[in-house]
Design brief:
Helix content is 45%, strand content 14%. It has twelve helices and eight strands. The structure holds phosphoenolpyruvate.
C-alpha cells in the first residue's frame, strides 16, 4: 500500500457562474463531511474563487485555480498573479493543462516560470503533462511526457518537490469518453516516477502524487486508482456534478 494520500481534484474549466459554483460546492461539502482519507480540491473559474472559497470555509475541501501568471504584478491584461490567488485562499493551481498548451500556445518554458512562481508563493502546482493521439500512435508518448515534465520542473529544488503534484493527462482521453487502459496509465505514471527519481532521488520521487486525468468516472476509477503509481485523479466532466465527484472521492478512499 502506498504512503501517498490520494488526491481528487476537480477542474471545472470555463463552467458555472458564481452562484452555480457555490451551489455545487455546498453539495460537495455536505456529502464529503469531515473525511480526511482523501485530499479533495476544487478548481473553479477565477470569477468564482472568492465565493467558492467562502463556501469552503471550515471544510476539508481545498481551493485551487486553473491558471496563474508568473509575474507578481504589472501590465499583463487579463492575467492573475500568485499573490492574488493566495489572497483568495487558493492552495493549488493547475499549470500546463493541455487546453492551455493547445489554445494559448503555452510552452514548457512559460509553464516552468509559472511552476517556479507558484512554489515561491506557497501555491501547490498541479503540473499537467500528456501526449496527443498522434504522438501516442507514432510511439512518442514517453519522449513527450519526459520533455514536458523536465521542462516544467526545471530549477525546482528537492524541498519544493514535496509541494508539486503531477497530472498525467493523455490529450486524447480528455473530455472524449476514451479512458486510457490501466496498463497504459500505469506505464506512464511509473515512467514519470522513475524520471523524478533520477533527478530528485528515490525517496523524494516516492512522495510525489501523480494524478491520472482523462475521462475518469466513478465506473472506471476503482481500477485506475488501484494501480501502484496512480495517486488520484484530475477530473473534468465528472467534477461538474456533485454525485459523480463525490463518488470519485469515495472510490479514492476505498482504494487506499
Ligand atoms: C481535464 O480537463 O483535466 C480532464 C481530465 O477532463 P475530463 O475528465 O472531462 O476528461
Amino acid at each position: 500500500m502506498s504512503s501517498r494520500k490520494k488526491l481528487i481534484a476537480g477542474n471545472w474549466k470555463m463552467n458555472k457562474t458564481s452562484s452555480d459554483a457555490v451551489a455545487l460546492v455546498q453539495e460537495i461539502v455536505a456529502a464529503i463531511g469531515k473525511q480526511t482519507d482523501v485530499d479533495v480540491v476544487v478548481c473553479p473559474p477565477f470569477t468564482s474563487l472568492e465565493s467558492v472559497g467562502k463556501a469552503l470555509d471550515g471544510s476539508v475541501v481545498k481551493l485551487g485555480a486553473q491558471n496563474v501568471h508568473p509575474e507578481p504584478s504589472g501590465a499583463y491584461t487579463g492575467e492573475t498573479s500568485v499573490g492574488m490567488l493566495r489572497a483568495l485562499f487558493s492552495s493549488y493551481v493547475i499549470i500546463g493543462h493541455s487546453e492551455r498548451r493547445t489554445y494559448f500556445q503555452e510552452s514548457d518554458g512559460f509553464i516552468n516560470q509559472k511552476v517556479l512562481a507558484a512554489l515561491k508563493g506557497q501555491l501547490k502546482p498541479i503540473l499537467c503533462v500528456g501526449e496527443t493521439l498522434g504522438q501516442r500512435e507514432s510511439g512518442q508518448t514517453l519522449r513527450v511526457v519526459q520533455t514536458q515534465l523536465e521542462g516544467g520542473l526545471e530549477g525546482v529544488s528537492k524541498d519544493q518537490l514535496t509541494s508539486v503534484v503531477v497530472a498525467y493527462e493523455p490529450v486524447w482521453a480528455i473530455g472524449t469518453g476514451k479512458v486510457a487502459t490501466t496498463e497504459q496509465a500505469q506505464e506512464v505514471h511509473a515512467f514519470i516516477r522513475s524520471l523524478l527519481a533520477k533527478t530528485f532521488g528515490d525517496a523524494m520521487a516516492e512522495k510525489v502524487r501523480i494524478l491520472y486525468g482523462g475521462s475518469m468516472k466513478p465506473a472506471n476509477a476503482p481500477e485506475l486508482l488501484g494501480q501502484k503509481d496512480i495517486d488520484g485523479g484530475l477530473i473534468g466532466g465528472a467534477s461538474l456534478e456533485s454525485r459523480s465527484f463525490v463518488d470519485l472521492v469515495k472510490a479514492a478512499a476505498s482504494s487506499r
